[in-house]
Amino acid sequence: MSTDDNSKKLGQFLKARRAELSPEAVGLLDQGQLRRVPGLRREEVAQLASISVQYYTRLEQGRLRASGPVLDSLAKALRLDHDQRDYLLELAAKDAAQPRGARQQRVKPQTQRLLDHLTDVPAIVLGRRMDILAWNPLAGVLLTDFSQIPEDQRNYVRLVFSESEIGGRYVNWESLAKMCVAFLRMDAARSSDDPRLSALVGELSVKDPRFRQWWAGHDVARRTSGVKKLRHPLVGDLTLDWQTFACADDPDQQLIVWTAEPDTPNDEALGFLASWAATREPEPPQSSSAGEPDESARPQTDPERH
User: Fold this and answer.
1) Across 7-16, 141-150, 295-304, least confident range
2) How many Cβ atoms from other residues are within 10 Å of residue 253's Cβ?
3) What domains are defined for the chain?
4) What pTM does this model have?
5) Distance between CA 252 and CA 105 in Å, rounded?
6) Whether the predicted pLDDT of 210 surpasses 90
7) Strand locations in the chain, DSSP E?
8) 219: Cβ contacts below 8 Å, ≥ 6 apart
């Protein structure tokens, strides 16, 4: 991603955030004047951040790079949360980083061994763009059999927005889908000119108007932890906690695990699925649907282990 692209995205982000704020929310008196646009005006943001209107206008137009103190002032003025502030700083970073999309991601043998030994909790490893790099058998039973998805299609966001089992397993699909878009938007700030990410966003924007709308909203979030309700054909409804763990040698890889509160119906249901997963015969994995396989989405392990 070039400096110009980052500046434009920063301006779009600022515009989206000020559109969400009312004068009352930031302590300004509404003079009763008719507003042509929702949210705060540019001059109001500039007033709150103690900068000139001309300076802020050029920032929103992507024609200027902001200093650290100005970014801090804007973050406070726009009431940005921790993730939004990090996203703002990522976009405004002055040093051009090595393109992250150029490095091939591999799951280390130690990580794969950990997955193999996690027999009672579902676990997957996500990489850049939320590509699915590896998984354990229980994750395949809980969500979908990832081995039957062509390698170049193993992307969590793509599967959520497709007619896959994953989207249908979540009780509140819209909440999940919006969260995935926010995660992907955060990833986009850290990726420097990743053509596969651009292709993914373009593909989903064309195929699904909801993705297009939510992507344009510039909401961002980091993958940390939470609670999700699922509906499984074998055990019915279950509520699971999810949590992420970053890989120390590759922060672009994250291990995600789902757990249940001990001695609850959810725990019993998960135990049943674990027993069922242990007795399943693995299916031969699918190859890429077309063209060369996407190396970043391929589990770097023996397929028979899945």
Assistant:
1) 295-304
2) 22
3) 3-92 (1.10.260.40), 103-305 (3.30.450.180)
4) 0.74
5) 9
6) yes
7) 123-126, 132-135, 225-232, 236-247, 250-259
8) 178, 181, 182, 185
